[in-house]
Specification:
With 112 residues, this protein is an alpha+beta fold. Helices cover 46% and strands 15% of the residues. It is globular. The mean pLDDT is 95.
Length: 112
């Protein structure tokens, strides 16, 4: 798997993206600022964005010149559509262990 650096204007955003995520841009931009751009975008070599619309918006807000991208030309159009839904939906299926989450947050607070 090769990760390339692309300029932001190379991406073609998916016009039928069903995610409403403008309210999350600031939080993602803050995370990218704090931790760096750790999760590459996924796109076809023609620039068609498969995954990472929210991260792309955050990168634009941060005025980044380039972002990391993984090329996925091996995916069919049907796979791209299914992946877009799957990658965004799967995270919402998992639940939090509230006791362990509390421990993690308290540990972070102790670290300041």
């Amino acid at each position: 798997m090769n990760i390339e650096q692309w300029p932001l204007d190379k991406f073609i955003e998916y016009v039928n993206n069903p995610r409403n995520n403008d309210h999350a841009v600031d939080a993602v931009a803050s995370a990218i600022h704090e931790f760096g751009f750790r999760v590459p975008l996924l796109a076809k070599s023609d620039g068609s964005l498969i995954d990472g619309h929210l991260r792309l918006k955050a990168a634009k807000k941060l005025n980044l010149d380039t972002v990391p991208v993984i090329i996925a030309d091996d995916m069919t159009d049907a796979q791209v559509k299914a992946f877009r839904i799957s990658v965004n939906q799967v995270a919402s299926i998992a639940d939090w262990d509230q006791d362990l989450l509390k421990i993690e947050i308290e540990s972070l607070q102790e670290m300041d």
